[in-house]
TrEMBL record:
Recorded superkingdom: Bacteria
InterPro entries in the record: LeuE-type
Protein species of origin: Martelella mangrovi
Stated name of the protein: Threonine/homoserine/homoserine lactone efflux protein
Membrane as UniProt keyword: yes
Keyword field: Cell membrane, Membrane, Transmembrane, Transmembrane helix
């Protein structure tokens, strides 16, 4: 692994995206253990995109506009659904101090997984990202890409867990103020809606 790959991958992982927002929202709404489950789900949601890029399947998104648009708008609908869940007073992702039934760990992992596999831009990103760091002289290009992908996933998991733990630690401070809770709930919902709009306006 080169220093260039490590720095570039770290920047990509650190920049807040849908996975980060989902992990933060889960940490705020359900606590530390749930935030770890969210981080795991988002990390494993990268696997299909990585495999698509490694084995050239992501090229289908370039050649099939219908396939790209279908997956894209499924992702948009899911992001808007998550935004609504955050805004709802008793939604599964609602940020509230009042006790309510918690989601199962499996449901949290599932939602994080779906969040990433329903984003076709992720496959296209890896298709353009990974080959830049493959050394032709070393041979075994597929093995190199899989190794780099594994490192990227590990970095994603570690960073997302840290984000989630921080959010969980902030729960008491957020819940101590009704104004802070309202601000946080609207901010997270707007972030999901914004990502959905950005995805809807994106092109191949």
């Amino acid at each position: 692994m080169s220093i260039a790959f490590f720095i570039t991958a770290l920047i990509v992982v650190l920049v807040p995206g849908t996975g980060v927002v989902y992990t933060l929202a889960t940490g705020l709404s359900s606590g530390r253990r749930a935030s770890v489950a969210a981080a795991v789900g988002c990390t494993f949601g990268i696997v299909p995109a990585i495999l698509a890029s490694v084995f050239g399947l992501a090229a289908l998104f370039h050649t099939s506009a219908v396939l790209f648009q279908t997956v894209k708008f499924a992702g948009v609908a899911y992001l808007l659904y998550l935004a609504w869940q955050v805004l709802k007073e008793h939604g599964t992702l609602s940020i509230s101090a009042e006790p309510r039934a918690k989601r199962s760990t499996l449901a949290i992992v599932r939602d994080g997984f779906l969040l990433n596999i329903l984003n076709p831009k992720l496959s296209v990103f890896f298709l353009a990202f990974l080959p830049q760091f493959v050394d032709p002289a070393a041979g075994h290009a597929v093995f190199q890409m899989l190794m780099l992908s594994g490192i990227f996933m590990l970095m994603t998991l570690v960073v997302f867990v840290i984000y989630g733990q921080f959010a969980a630690l902030m729960r008491d401070r957020v819940f101590s103020s009704e104004r802070a809770m309202a601000w946080m709930r609207r901010s997270v919902a707007m972030a999901f809606a914004g990502f959905g709009l950005k995805l809807a306006l994106s092109r191949q």
